[in-house]
Model the fold of this input.
Amino acid sequence: MPLSGKHLLGIAELPTSDIRLILNTARSFREISSRPIKKVPTLRGRTVINLFYEASTRTRSSFEIAAKRLSADAINFSVSTSSVAKGESLIDTGMNLLSMNPDVIVIRHQEAGAPHLLARYLKNCSVVNAGDGMHEHPTQALLDALTIEDRKSRFEGLKIAIVGDIAHSRVARSNCLLLTRMGAEVWVCGPPTLIPVGFGEHYGVRVTCQMREALEDADVVMMLRTQRERQKEVFYPSVKEYFALYGLNRKKLAWAKKNAIVMHPGPINRGVEIDPDVADGSESVILEQVNNGVAVRMAILYLILGAAEEGSR
Ligand code: CP
Done:
């Protein structure tokens, strides 16, 4: 069964049945990555272009690995060495790449809505959002959901605390949308300056500036990176103060349930939002998230090309 749409632009647009389908398909693909020869011919002859306008380690390399494990051709487009550096617009770049007949363009862009704009212009190619500004990072939320469900066997009744720079986080937004849809109780926590007014009502989540309230009896603690590259003002007095109030250390983790898991989308800032002792501790599933990222992106490429083949939108 293919995905219901030709593009994957955000969790907001993704039906719950598609979320379930992606998680189940990812589980079935995971085994391929543990084989001695990590390749199946499923997408042979298909072309995936990674069009990244922002830096990435995990998302870009896992989309490339996912495409290659399914035998698709993967092309990495680096903005700094492309004609974008000469002033070419997103649409012109997209239309020129389209002339080379790719099947999927995976885009990360600093502007919210860039993947949606590209999708409007590219008629014969699927677009996947790999993170757009402070808007959404749907594939991150899907791999996070896979990790949570693997560890906790459910979403209903879970208390999930998302802590840190909520305001600038597309990971927080996509996770709030996905995890509340699946029945979890989501709390967001951070300095008042880093939680937008109305966030709780908009996303249907609980909001607190007290880390203890967010973490008490939590099943999942998801820490966020302080996104200094997007912060145009000073949002907290010092890194030392930020860590004292909102950094996760062993003492604060003890407020959560005994078997709570610790997540982080990466890259982590050790000693800023998370203590190295916790990041590397037995509760941490941070590298499991990265591993699941390959399986989720294999599932998405496979299912989205199925959708495009069926001619559905
Ligand atoms: N989680 C995440 O998006 O990491 P990268 O920025 O390295 O892709």
Remarks:
- The chain has a mean pLDDT of 94.
- The beta strands are 47-52, 73-78, 104-109, 126-132, 159-163, 185-189, 206-208, 220-223, 261-263.
- Residues 56-59, 131, 140, 265-267 surround phosphoric acid mono(formamide)ester (CB under 6 Å).
- The radius of gyration is 19 Å.
